[in-house]
Batch of 4 targets.
Target 1
Amino acid sequence: MKYRIKRLISQLIFLLSANLGFLGLKTGFCYPFFYCHSCPTATSACPLRALEESVYKGNTNWKYLFYPFMILGAVGSLTGRSVCGWACPIGLLQRGTSPIARQVKKSKFVKDHLSSIQQIDRLMRYAKYFILIGLIFFTSALIGFIFTDICPIGFLTGTIPTLLLYPGQFVPNPFFFIALVIFLLFLILIFTIERGWCRYVCPIGAILAPFNKIAPVHIDVDLSCCIHCNACTNVCPMAIDVPSMKRSPECILCGKCVDICPKDCITLRRR
């Protein structure tokens, strides 16, 4: 069975497990992926909210700080950033928007400005680390909650379902319209850049990314049989130069490069 089929099955299972709250299943567990705790059917909590709580206005609560880091650290140590490709519901959403984003990539404008776009892309990949440090920790410690109040994923999986399920009962907070604008920008991002959220914005991806360097699960390329057809690089949703990536922090271990390699030079190793 190809990895794309296995991955789809895995993503659907995790999406279902994240929404068992309608059965009354609510836990204090933190998701090891991106999904909002304010979703009416959510089973668990958002790790980012716990991190915000841990440093809220300088009142450090080590329990809230270590708990999500222990979960994400354990998952990252074992599987690297594979959560982004195999479990995260927002990854599944972007899987659906990828065909449109790929068409945008083939447009004349992109081709005419490819060099400049690639330079901007390389710089923008650091944005998720600044978002993690700045909007999760610094603003929470000095000002208050910012990120989870304007988070587009919270708007998608929390605000919109609440509005639909409980019409007339929803009371918008002061950040509602800001969150709405950011949500619209999020939609533009994922429809124009394949895996744009994962590449540039996701703070959980920023936490998991360094673990790609040490995790036993990784993509391995046998350069001795590589014919440099670039099929793997062209199909990569994270726009990585696969043959030379050397355990790239950007790799989500989706296996698309493994499936497409005509010489079977690429493997998804588990050791």
Note: Strands lie at 217-221, 266-270.
Target 2
Amino acid sequence: LLASVPLLLGGALELPLGLLAGQARRRRRFILSGGIVFVLSLLAVAAAPSWLVLLAAFPLFFPASGAFVGLTQAELLDAQPERQAQVMARWDLAGNAGAVAGPLLLAAVLAAGGGWRAAYLALAAVAALTWAGTCWRASPTASAGDADAADADGEGTARVREVLAALRDGAVLRWLVLLEVADLLVDVLTGFLALYL
């Protein structure tokens, strides 16, 4: 049960993060900040001298992942609204490739004589390279300064009202709960399966 707390915390914070991030430059700042916290949380896990440090690092990891990964996905979808299905297909393929590459990376680290700390260091290095690539690439919507102005003029408030109205709908809440349960079944169950093996 304790293992699912960071995952639930990350899921609960993704929606407020998405609303706060808004669009254009502000979203890009959230993505880059999330990437920094993501890398730092991986380094904190790798260097954790005690259980308390691990307990602090993992709850940081999941919201940072939501800001870095989830908002990047939203940015890519907004950049090509006419090709959202293709963008999502590529995103899903990249995620599946990562699911295969993760165990291969762990196997390579273990074969080289490293342990779980070295695996987290390798993940931090990959995440840092990804973050650097995100910094290098010009944001497709970063030049659209009018989106920030629109957010400042009340678009953000309207978006918050829409989300709160949707959360009052029982069907939306039901699907959100089912989505979180499915996430727990995939992520947490897979993690425990790896521990069992």
Note: The chain has seven helices and no strands.
Target 3
Amino acid sequence: LSANDAQVISFLKGIGANPNIVSLDIKIVEKVDLERPMDWQAYVIQLDGVAKMGSKTQPISQRSIYFVGDGLITADLYDLKTGDKLNASISPEFKEKYYDQSHLLFGNKDAVHKAVIFSDPLCPFCRTFVPKALEYMKQYPKTFAVYYYHFPLRSLHPAAIPLVKAAFAAEKKGQKNVVEGLYKVQVDGRERNIQKILDAFNAVQGTKITVADISQAEIQQHLDHDMTVAKEHLVNGTPTLFFDGKKDPTKLVYKNVKLIK
């Protein structure tokens, strides 16, 4: 017994029965067929509305995944043997409009393959994975067009926010190879002294980025844009890699393609 879209939306509207929800709009962004369980689908859902917070109201916006099949719906689905959560492998197709020149790190935009990296430069795994992945793909510009989006994890690494803003400011001033240099900056992810963070950034990049530079509205807009694109594609951890439009949970697909020199 498979559900249709109207049934799924009707079920989710039950969330609106919460007395703290003033209004709720539910949209199906995308549906992904699962290999298993057979005949199941992952629904990518966008929830927008208004919620009461004490005597005030505030907008809410959330993108979530629900698994639907056999007359059932669930927010989480696990592999019983491996313990892996299937949610992590589900994502909307990377949108064509976001393969833009401002995020093209290197490679020919008409290369055979497109890779998109979302990363926090202070994430330990990112500091191991990203430089090696970039170094590898940079050698083959006809094979890989590499796009990069900043996704600093504020709650884990508050220092990543001014660090990423410094990167935007440096690029605005014409500095080259800024992203690669980010992974060489030595600063504690929990550092909150902005000047100390900028000093560490400038020491590596050979720049003179100031607090005033990273305080410009344009810099915040750049960061907001990257975070919005991450949200649209259900990025919630780093590093996240999309390869030819599809999320690659293994982060290894790029190593298994035919290389063109």
Note: The two ends are 51 Å apart (CA to CA).
Target 4
Amino acid sequence: LTIAERTDNSAPEANAGSDESYEEASLCQAINYGESYSCAACEDYDFSLSATGSTDADGDWMTYAWSVTSGSATLDDSTSDSPTLTFTGPSATYGSDTVETVEVELTATDCYGDSGTETVTLTFTCTTPEADSGT
């Protein structure tokens, strides 16, 4: 039996999955005989992330680190291979849509300390009815 130390290492390739989007309609209620409207915020929404498509050419064991790099959302476990990212339901304004976008970066690191990164974009759109044109 001969044990040899490996002299080279390939960095892993992170795979954060595909960009995703979700759309929800807000409920609006007329106030003052339709002169103004009150709209409820959209509900919170969970996106399921996955690093399981990440690979290492050497077959090395990997760890994962997720981070929100832009926008506002909460990760339930930033070191899991499959965390959940929660958007707080955006507020709604009658006659316009509220679009919130978050970028999340995945870093996959192998047991030799080499790493690869990839970013995924998640979009939440809270829609409301169109303003009445009066026709």
Note: The radius of gyration is 22 Å.
